[in-house]
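Figure 2 data, in text form.
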Amino acid sequence: MLKRVIAVVCILVLLACFSSCDSAETGVVVTTPIKVAVGIPDSPQFYAAQDYTTEKGYELVKNETMESAIVSVENGKADFVVISSADATNKLLESTSLEWVENTSYKIDYCAYFNKSNESLKKTFDDAINELKKVGTFDAINNAYAKGENYQVKPTSYKNGTLRILCSPVFDKLLCFDEKGNLAGKEISVINEICAQLSMKPEIIIVTEFDELLYKLDMGEGDVVISAMEFTEERKEMYLCSDTYMQTTFGVYKRKTS
């Protein structure tokens, strides 16, 4: 019996030694990777999460929907989830057990696009944007949508005529159709406020295909493109770009600790 006990003890000691040697010799420390969940494949939200995990050395966990990504964090199957500022409304956060950790470095700046020949309209448009920034109008719009409230634009006169706006309402939360088929989203409020500042009536021209917006602008079918369109250096080479009027950031969220 004593010999058997001694043999078991020796085996345990040997196993401990081997484990120690493997760690010391190879320098390999086995750890569980930090997992970051994200939904909506091939979306800006996905690219933000991809950049974040690459920068941090974390593991990216892909989901088909934002809801399933959130559930994976709530269930402890992932450590973090990346959500855009357009989606991370107070209503969403209150209905889940998530809390903000930090923002990713990835962000999107939105601007309007004009033909190169339309410099005067571009300047007037920028003046309107900067005035609305100064008085806090865009902050008020952001706050209203974060709370899930309807933003109301004050009535105004349109003494300066009509502004033909090309847009493609396909971006959920920013520019879309509501259940009644009406244009909705944060960007519609932005459009209405800018037009009110310009004293111009917005004439929305719907373009079914997003990729055709700039083509329609080239053809003279509208005065400006305002359609949750990201600023890029490539577009700047071909068109006049307004100052940024809206930005989407991407936050990292975790399960609440209490």
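Caption note: The radius of gyration is 26 Å.
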